[in-house]
Amino acid sequence: MAVRAQFESSSEVGVFSRLTNSYCLVALGGSENFYSVFEAELSKHIPVVHTSIGGTRIVGRVCVGNRHGLLVPSITTDQEIMHLRNHLPDTVKVQKVEERLSALGNCIACNDYVALVHTDLDRETEEVIADVLKVDVFRATIAQNVLVGSYCVLTNQGGLVHARTPMQDMEELSQLIQIPLTAGTVNRGSDIIGAGVVANDWSAFCGMDTTATEIGVVENIFKLQSPGAAMQSALIDTMM
Fold first, then answer.
1. How many other C-beta atoms are found inside a 10 Å radius of the C-beta of residue 44?
2. 113 vs 237, which has greater pLDDT?
């Protein structure tokens, strides 16, 4: 089931939150409504942690993680790292990364098994990603964009990529990372998938502007619904 949410008046939920199979990070200072949407859906299963990274609220864009670990940029304060370590499950390793490209969420897209990374990322960072997140790391672009984290969202079930990704590229990527991919948009036509959707293996959250058809595509690729229900919800939404 994909749920719509809004941070203050922004539909870019992926900028203000980071969702994995073992925890969820949400930015400080948004409306209570934003948190309650996440907590209603997730708090029975995983911790929903309120945090800032380096004093900023754009937690989804500056950090990246999966069920094994969380990578945070060099701007993160020691206090924030302590807060994260105290609230995340013990199995999750929190690691600070000294990387020039510090918006890690824009430069890295990952699930629990593979990571796609920006082509210019440091070799040391690549090793840290492989070590902390326990993933195979591939340097890639998506529709000629190096910011793979902005233009792609991956879960263990599937991946959603930039709407203008050529079919051949998509097939090559899909073979490489061994999950199905589909091209799509969010927030009524936005190509910046990473900012508009956060997803894990059993839930997804998209911006308030996302249309019923886009939600259908999201639920389909991330396998969040019973088969055959995709168009039904879109039709009901349109008729209302």
1. 7
2. 113
